[in-house]
Amino acid sequence: MKICVNGIEIHYEVYGTGPPIILLHGNGESMEIFDRLAEDLCSGHTVFLIDTRGHGESQGMDSFCYADIAEDVAAFITSLNICRPILYGFSDGGIAGLMLASKYPDMLAGLIVSGANLTPKDLKLGFRIYLRLMYRIKRDPLLKLMLDEPNITESDLRRISVPTLVTAGEKDIVRVSHAEYIADTVQNGRLTVAKDEDHSSYIVNSEKLYPMISGFLAEIIGWPPETPTEENIGVSEGRRGVRP
Question: Where are the beta strands (DSSP E) in 185-243?
Answer without folding.
Answer: 189-194
